[in-house]
Amino acid sequence: MKTKLAYADDHFHDECGVFGVFGHPEAANLTYLGLYALQHRGQESAGIVASSGGDLNMHRAMGEVEEIFQPRVLAKLPGTSAIGHTRYSTAGDKGLLNAQPILVDCSKGKIAVAHNGNLTNAGEWRRKLEHRGSIFQANSDTEVIVHLIARSQARNFSGALGDALNQLEGAYSLLVLTPDELYAVRDPRGFRPLVLGRIPSTENGDAWLVASETCAFDLLNAQYVREIQPGEMLRISRSGLESIHFSPPKPHQYCIFEHVYFSRPDSIIFGRSVNESREMLGRLLAREHPVEADMIVPIPDSGVPAAIGFALESKIPFRMGLIRNHYIGRTFIEPSQAIRNFGVKLKLNPVRELIKGKRVVLVDDSIVRGTTSRKLVRMVREAGATEVHMRISCPPTISPCYYGVDTPTREELIASANSPEEIRKYLGADSLGYLSMAGLKQAVNDTKGDFCTSCYTGVYPTDLVQLEVREGAGAKKLAEEVTVQRES
Ligand code: AMP
């Protein structure tokens, strides 16, 4: 009999940014600014919990950080420590109930949790816990963590947190706030980033910051100290910092897509400059897929550093041939296909005077469904380009992410069932080149095999997911009218 897999029916995508402060008189204000710098990691909802005099106060709302945290709201979040969260999740699980941080009053006192990543055994735990009488408020996997903490028999809080973490599988970069401590935790494989920063010598000594990305520290003039290590629980309290390793080490699985697309280029992620990786992705792409052309045009914003690398390497001029309207959300945030299609036009417009009569190379970081690239190729041709070549700074995305990046199902991923040549024809491009896996790894300087590349290989580092993928969902060929002969 086919076993019902825990994960399949609870599949819950989360793209998020987290930020925490300990030991600063303006903790909530700093958290607001930190979240502002991390807005690209999630735009659907945001929240802050601050600790003051033994109490935790929370404000969460739907929308972007700037609109949610007006001065009158921040004034209601006093205290010297705080955590915040900014979140994007896929349609179907929208809603304030799933916004974070989550705040509970349980057997261990008041605790707030902010989570970036996806737990792969959350569904299984949820069913077990519900069976034993636990009540869940929402469908986010983060609630499972709180229940597991509450149920632990450990005598102190760090022990209870460690107990909970050791029962979890998958990706988590976590911030946990209690009335007088802040915990920063990264799962043993280190899927998602988490970094430690410091603002030296405030009135109460140093203030400590924890963030998904270092760009949040720059805004606050804070120093970047180091990464939270995979498998590390960093306890920050008035007595200082204590590093606890709660799990035996596991092979690292840093998300390579953070370097390809997700993080900001001005961040240091997994100890490496994202901009450096992206320019290198572009340079290697130019070496692997050279082309005779008049200009390199990035798909802004995410394609820009790779396009610069491509231009530097190929010595073909870099031109801003597509202009982005910055006052709308990213295309992928639009919930339905109808709006998505419209969104491309809303977002990008060609500079006809530049493009007309020219052979153009479009550089983007990835093709997901193919909708954006297809429209852009057409748009650039209509603007008068004589040739349109597409270059993608990573390998074909063939399989969904189960560790916290929002990718559609396998059926919707164009590369899951179609060859690059089939995709080229669908896009209507004169040529299409994807970076190789070797090029990708070289660009992020992955000399030790520390990165997760599941979305490009379909091979997953956690058992439950691998099992589900093997049993499950198929890939889909392009529709009849656009299906082309597979190369023999
Ligand atoms: P599509 O039209 O579905 O092929 O989308 C491709 C575009 O989505 C590219 O321009 C990427 O920059 C962007 N993109 C790739 N991966 C993601 C992701 N996980 N979330 C949001 N946008 C993405």
Overall pLDDT metric:
90
Number of domains: 2
Main beta sheet, described?
7 strands, antiparallel
CATH fold-level name of the largest domain = Glutamine Phosphoribosylpyrophosphate, subunit 1, domain 1
Compute the CA-based radius of gyration.
Answer: 23 Å
CATH architecture of the largest domain: 4-Layer Sandwich
- State the low-pLDDT regions, or none: 1-12, 480-488
Number of helices in the DSSP assignment: 17
| CATH class value of the largest domain | Alpha Beta
Distance between the termini: 37 Å
CATH superfamily grouping of the largest domain: Aminohydrolase, N-terminal nucleophile (Ntn) domain
Helix and strand content put the structural class at alpha+beta
State the share of residues found in helices, binned by percent. Answer: 25-40%
Name the beta content range: 25-35%
The molecules bound to the chains, other than polymers, are: adenosine monophosphate
In order across it, which strands form the biggest sheet?
3-2-4-1-10-9-11
What sort of overall outline do the alpha carbons produce when their principal axes are compared?
A: globular
